[in-house]
From TrEMBL:
The active site is at residue 54. Residues 29-262 form the NADP-dependent oxidoreductase domain. Pfam families: Aldo_ket_red. PROSITE patterns: ALDOKETO_REDUCTASE_1, ALDOKETO_REDUCTASE_2, ALDOKETO_REDUCTASE_3. Keywords: NADP, Oxidoreductase. GO terms for molecular function: oxidoreductase activity, acting on the CH-OH group of donors, NAD or NADP as acceptor. Belongs to the aldo/keto reductase family. The record marks 79 as: Lowers pKa of active site Tyr. This is Aldo/keto reductase. Gene3D superfamilies: NADP-dependent oxidoreductase domain (3.20.20.100). Substrate binds at residue 112.
Amino acid sequence: MIKNLQDTYTLNNGVQMPGVGLGVYKADDGEEVTSAVRTAIDHGYRLIDTASFYGNERGVGEGIRESSMNQNDIFLTSKVWNDEQGYDETLRAFEASLGRFGFNNLDMYLIHWPVPGKFKETWKALERLYDERVIQAIGVSNFHKHHLEDLMKDANVKPAVNQVEYHPHLSQGELKPFCDKHDIRMQAWSPLKRGKLFDEPTVADIAREHGRTPAQIILRWDLQTGVATIPKSTNKERIVENADIFNFELSEHDMTRLKNMNIDDRTGPNPDEMFK
């Protein structure tokens, strides 16, 4: 169990990844994302998650440089976008991302979506970058169980992480046991379902019982289910609030109530529908 904001999960290759991080999807490049990253790091966050598709890698790099910590102390993740996939294309996309960050390496690089007919070649490129030690860990995002099974048939390196939409309305009942079995750490994007869970009676009741906000209850649920989490915000108060989840514990009854909220409802696309 993650005990504090700097505490880590050990990935399947031995790399230590912080269990809680800052997501920056939809944060504007420039001062908005730079300020959010700087604020998060200065308040104890040690993982920043972005992607080439977000268009803010340059600002993320600047935020890290302006923060109170050295780049080597921050776990930085980016992702290769759909139209960048393929072997040679991915290698070029990675170099472009490094150029925007202004760094020489990344901690983790993910395939953003399982593009049919391309994600296996993309993975080969990630394996090459991993072998060259310019990435500490490689993984995927938005992969269903069958995508992972297909990928691992030919992979030399098993994905360390599968970053997926995960919250009480989408508890990934088939995918999570598969990832647990194969030692692939799940990481939750949109863990708060873009605020749509805050007024749910179950969440609101548990929040009142613990004297916590609904966001804190949901993020604590992530940790107690063994899922890393990357809530996104550019608001200083929310960034700080989202990190204050280590001095209380949800009961088994709380956990069951939250698990029973699952309705397999998504805010983002279903990976099987994305490319039809």
